[in-house]
What we know:
0% strand
Amino acid sequence: MFQFVLFIFKLLHEDVFVLKIKFFCKLIFLYTFRVRRAVVEWIEVAKKTDAKNELMAKVHQISRFLPDPMKVQEFLQKFSTHMKRDTRLLQEMETIVQPNVSCKECAETITKVLKKLGQPVMTNLYYNTIKMLLERVSSVMIDEEAIRVSRLLGSILYFFLFMKKCLIIMCAN
């Protein structure tokens, strides 16, 4: 048991390591939040019947979150048209961006949306573009359950940091 504790202490060499991990996680969260918010606004605009200019502005905004924005705009515009025609697709997109959606439900809904876009082959750029966007906005890794687990792991991490400081003090005496 003592060797395991020492291993954890070596792994968490300094508190700086923990701070770097927290900072990195915050950056990922903020980026995901920005993309998700833009997609939520895009979906709201897609519901409107006469908002072509506003829709183009949202498509342009979202294209900046994906590689090769100029090429992506064409596929996002096509998907906008697809959402306007297919109300079920629009509902599924709303489900994906809900903040309280479970990982399982989100993953199942993404699968349904992707099936409507054609075959998942490398040459289907439309499919790959929308898939990339859905990967950026989906909650397939973090939901309420994952947050509870991360809080537990955070508590364990702080316990080990506390134990490390105690061992340092004991060794100094």
